[in-house]
Amino acid sequence: MKSLGQLRRSGGLDVHRIDVDGVLMASPREQLVDVAFDGRRIWSFWLHRDGEEREDGVLARWPKPLRPFLDGVTEVTLTDPGTGTVLHEETVQFGDHPGRIEVVNPAGRPLSLDKSLKLVETFDTRDAAQVEPLLDAIEEVLGALREVGLDAFLAYGTALGAIRDGGLIGHDSDADLGYVSAHDHPVDVIRESFRIQRALTDMGYRVTRYSAIALKVHVAESDGLDRGLDVFGGFMRDGVLYLMGEIAVPFERDWIHPLGTALLEGREFPVPADTDRFLTATYGPHWRVPDPAYKFTTPASTIELFNGWFRGMRTGRAGWHGYHKRTINQPAPVSAVAHQVAERHPDLATYVDIGCGRGADVAWFADRGTSAIGLDFQPFAYAEEAERRADDPRVTFQLFNLLELRHVLAVSAWVARTPGPRAVGCVHVIERLGRRGRLNMLRSARMMLAGTSGALHLQFLSERGRDGYPRRTGARKALDPAVVAAEVAESGGRVLEQVRERVSPGPDGSQVCRMIIDWNA
């Protein structure tokens, strides 16, 4: 079977039309296409792999994140990225706006679609000075890994760019490092990864976790852009290389060590000893041919292994990111739970909001003179309020993941040492959690409330209506209050009060359930 690269054809494309739906073409063979607006790359696709076969041709639909920008005039250029051949050029009017189309973020910085079809600031829109902090961070993080006994190296797209091109890949948007542990058991590799995280945190870096052996180091570029430096753990076992993310292939350790070097933007960095075998394991035998629309096709067996060993900490995070991004410009009202807590606990010293979202309840309590802690595992949600309240001693925001036991125990123990009386609120969170996450939430609340007479004030969707309330709140599906009550009892708690309430008039209105829970026997 031939690869997509082998099926690529050169020469012009027979383009029928370009409109708000997409690019309609007639092509009997596969073709990799770069799409540029006014000379700047915006998107890349494979015609038949990504297109929709129709009677009148193949339609490459505009990806959803790009559609809001399609109102105006632009010069659309279709190019073969492998040869640079211009396949088609046409000035196109989208919608009624007379101005030029600008695909930019609110700060006016150019965006394009990466291989995951996310609109990001790719490297081809940045200058050398702007990415210097990222290169500095690569050197520092490699040094930190050496200090804990690991010889790390450039991996994935960063290795590909360095080995093939000598620089960062223009359509890429982050940097990748990898390492192969001396351990061969997943548990030992996990413990090592958390030791790495502590070392990086001690160096002053902000670190978030993808999985038990993969993490992101946040690096601020010269203009403040938050760029990710991903660190993927790996190990050898029974002649197989397991590198977090995509790789589980037969391999030899001496194909990795001793490490070689390659130039990246003029700096020398370590790479695996046998770069051809490594990049073949990552991108296939045709890795030398540029493919800005490349998609990893990880075998199901590899995904199952990595899920079982290492994943489960980020379940639902992308969904919450999408929810908060979609609602970022909508007012964030103070919840009924916040009002209930203020009424029931007039002497409250600390309010804790599990799943604080945009931080409206946290800000409301702080403005009333009560210290408030906002906890959420999607920092994008509370970032704006955290920046606004950076100098307010009554406000604290903290990354908190109910699927990660270290967070559940450490953060809850920290909260338990804050001034009391304390109360905990949790609004429209548990509907998005499985049983493990719900029990961890109850465990957290119990720890946070230890030593005080406060209670957990819980609100969740108990009946899904057709009033749009579930979408507005991010609650995907209803949860049976009897299930929650049973889990409360299992956690050693008791439901002091339970109320069900329609949030909209009429028979199609959604219903919420509010519970007040404590663990004071």
Q: Indicate the percent of residues in helices.
A: 25-40%
Tally of contiguous helical segments: 15
Q: What percent of residues are in strands?
A: 25-35%
Mean pLDDT: 90
**CATH architectural group of the largest domain:** 3-Layer(aba) Sandwich
Sheet of most strands: 7 strands, mixed
User: In CATH terms, what is the fold-level topology of the largest domain?
Assistant: Rossmann fold
CATH superfamily of the largest domain: Vaccinia Virus protein VP39
N-to-C CA distance:
68 Å
What's the domain count? 3
Got a strand count?
Answer: 26
The coarse silhouette is globular
Low-confidence stretches: 1-10
Short description:
With 521 residues, the protein is an alpha+beta fold.
